[in-house]
Amino acid sequence: MASAREARERLRALLTRTRRRTPAPTGSPTGALAPAPHPCARATGLVAVVLLGAWLGLLIVGSVRTPVGPMDTSMTLRPSLSGGTKINVSPLGALELDSHTAPIRLDVDVDRLDPVRSQALVEHPERISGLQDEITQDVTAGTRDLALRSCVAVVAGATALGLAVYRSPRRALTAGGLALALLAASGTSAYATWNPKSVLEPKFSGLLSSAPSVVGNARSIVTEFDVYQKELARLVTNVTKLYDATSTLPVYQPDPATMRVLHVSDIHLNPAAWHIIGSLVEQYDIDVIIDSGDTMDHGTAAENTFLDPIPDLGAPYVWVRGNHDSPATQRYLQGLKNVHVLDEGRAVTVAGLRVAGTGDPQFTPDRSVVAQGDPAERMAGIRLASALHDQRRAGTPVDIAVAHNPVAARETDGAVPLALAGHVHHRETELLPLGTRLKIEGSTGGGGLRAVQNDEPEKVRASVLYLDRTTRTLQAWDEITLGGLGLTTAEVSRHLATEPAPDSPPPTPRPSPAP
């Protein structure tokens, strides 16, 4: 009995070992055992199947076409290490938004503008007021459809690939379930890290990086002006920080003792200018702001509240009247804190700097007023020069003279080292025959809101002047230029006072824009 039992046990053991054997390849020893897959290898293989299947599913069927306002778009989810949203505007380029952090990226392809919907907006501009809500609804509906379609796509893709690889329905369904869980986790991560402000800070590529922004036209700037002015101010801040960090001009480096004067002009009732000026004051540590006039458009009392942000700009504000500024404007500014109004050669000492100026003798808010022309400007300049000579004889020489019109400012040649003006809406620097340097600033308001009527919007211009604190002589200046309404260009260039003045013909004064 014992022998029979032992024989059965040996047979059972032999059969067990035989089942574990696989046919040996040609040339291999008979009966070689196939090594069982390592658990890590099995898991890695499953992950690869899930990721590849999900990606294939999204690539093949994970896209939806949806209208967004007047545009026809295609929305697609793509695997990504950094997440975000990419809006392709073929053939101009793309905008990238840091909208979320997740292993998926949302691609939006703008296919075309629908002619029917676009024409409807042109014929019925009142519909633009509801366009924001319409676009929000369109994007919400498109995103919902995309999420549903993407779920189907990743499950179908991972399941199909799992079935092809494993030939096991159970493992294929496991791959599909893991793909769905991965997509759900990615969606949760995107929702948790969603940044709605990313639409205000797009990164442009292709032709869009140097072309006018597609963020909006003149009408959208008016309707969303609060957003525009804040973001334009932020653009100034970023540009000036970049300039400080990457300046390669060792020939002149302002030290902490250097006086910094911000010259602005011709704001023309553009509220974005206050945000720009505030950013420049903070970034450049400005000591004094000098405004050479035309802060208003028509000089009416109703416009006066536009001036209320001036006391909070962070630096003393020196102002002269322009031809679009009325006596009522001047009286209102005289009542504001931290504002110094100059007229008829009056001089003040602000932050250690002696400044004198005169207001424009003409008030021409629109074309219904006949201008007196250059003779009136020259007489105002002669009176200013006389006041400057009086200040010098009294032992209180003036460092900077300010007038709105360059014709008046030229009359101060020889009476002051530096004269500032505006009015002509473009920037010029001229060394006058008797040694006075005349600096004419462009429009810090980009010509005002009426500039959108032009074919090409005016650029926003301002300058930072660096003066020696002891001698109060001009050492260098930075010219800051921003794209006008609807543009996104920005540049900063430095010039030395020791350089010869640019060869340019005398400026031909032109009236500020009027309706």
In summary, what is this structure?
The chain is α/β, with parallel strands linked by helices and about 525 residues long. It has eleven helices and 19 strands.
Give a verbal description of the structure:
This protein has 515 residues and is of the alpha/beta class. Helices cover 36% and strands 21% of the residues. It contains eleven helices and 19 strands. It is elongated. The model is unreliable at 24-31, 207-223, 246-250 and 502-515 (pLDDT under 50). Residues 23-36 have a biased composition (Low complexity). The chain crosses the membrane at residues 43-64, 146-166, 173-194. Residues 502-515 have a biased composition (Pro residues). This is Metallophosphoesterase.
Mean pLDDT across the residues is 78
| Helix content, binned percent | 25-40%
The N- to C-terminal Cα distance equals 122 Å
How many strands, which pairing sense, and closed or not: the largest β-sheet?
7 strands, mixed
Q: Strand order, main sheet: write it out.
A: 10-9-8-7-17-18-19
- Radius of gyration, in Å, reads 35 Å
Share of residues in strands:
15-25%
**Shape assignment:** elongated
Poorly predicted spans: 24-31, 207-223, 246-250, 502-515
Pfam families: Metallophos (PF00149)
InterPro entries: Calcineurin-like_PHP, Metallo-depent_PP-like, Metallophosphoesterase_sf
Keywords: Hydrolase, Membrane, Metal-binding, Transmembrane, Transmembrane helix
Organism: Streptomyces formicae
